[in-house]
Amino acid sequence: MNLFDDKVEKMRRYCLFTDRCHKEVRSKLLKENIYGDELEQIMAILIEEDFLNEERFAKAYAKGKFKQNKWGKKKIQMELKQRGLSDYCIRKGFEEIDDDDYDEMIRSLWEKKWDQTREKNEYKKRQKVMNYMMGKGYGYEEVKMAIENGI
Prior knowledge:
- It is a single chain.
- This protein is mostly helical.
- It folds into 3 domains: about 5-50, Arc Repressor Mutant, subunit A; about 55-95; about 100-150.
- The protein contains 9 helices and no strands.
- The chain is elongated and about 70 Å long.
- The termini are far apart.
């Protein structure tokens, strides 16, 4: 194997460990001092061999952040946009999140945070819990609707 093949193999292993987006792989290559045509060739090989697939990355990312971190769609969308994913890929990622599961997550997080919040004034308590929910990436209207329909 030559030096170029070694670099490609190293990036294959990097992509096998977990799904990666193009931006992450490009950054890794730049850190390895790989630039220009060589960088583009390696990217093309990884895409052609399906080591890099942004739609698959978006699906895995959205599903994982929702289930593991309990993030809402707004936060997931923001993170995927920062990684340079297209609106199409982001929509595909959201297909991995079931609407009923999403509403149930909102209700579950709300109830848990409500019980944990030590505030006597109900208006202030509601505000604190809503701020928490919005920080997790849930929109005001979707939280309001899920709470009204489920609690």
